[in-house]
Amino acid sequence: MVILSACSSDTVRPGVPNVPVNEQISVNSLQYPMLRQDGGYAYIQGGYRGIIVVRQNASTYYAFERACPYDPDANCGVVSADQSNLFLTHSCCGSQFNFQGAVTSGPAVYGLLQYRTSLVNNILYITN
Ligand code: FES
Fold first, then answer.
1. Is the CB of 68 under 6 A from ligand 1?
2. Does pTM top 0.90 for this prediction?
3. Which residues, given as ranges, of the chain have pLDDT below 70?
4. Ordered strands of the 80-81 beta sheet
5. Ligand 1 centroid to 20 CA: how many Å?
6. Which residue in 7, 9, 45, 57 has a CA-CA distance of 20 to 30 Å to 16?
7. Does ligand 1 have an atom closer than 6 angstroms to the CB of 88?
8. Is 93 in the pocket of ligand 1 (CB under 6 A)?
9. 63 vs 114: CA distance, rounded Å
10. What would the 3-class secondary structure string for 21-78 be?
């Protein structure tokens, strides 16, 4: 019998797998209209299960892995911005993170995996 469980609390937490990350986006692209304002964000490909890019200000952007640090392989989705646009949440069992990637509500105990970013001439390079 196979039991699908998204948030079992009786197992050791697997870490988010360390996959090669090497993405670049133009932060001014029409593809990412929300990156034009502070606090805006965009979902892009890459990482283990996708990456969310958050604009802190015009010169500072963060990039977080969308796999939940509580259960990276949860089969019920990935971390997304909630309707308030103030928090990143994982709908499986409700872990919540702020836009700096820190846990604000469990069951997750670790913050979102953060990737390195560097901005050169409006191109944001995302690596690990
Ligand atoms: S796996 Fe349950 S909150 Fe992320």
1. yes
2. no
3. 1-14
4. 80-81, 87-89, 96-98, 103-105
5. 23
6. 57
7. no
8. yes
9. 6
10. CEEEEECCCCCCHHHHCCCCEEEECCCCCCEEEEEEECCEEEEEECCCCCCCCCCCCC
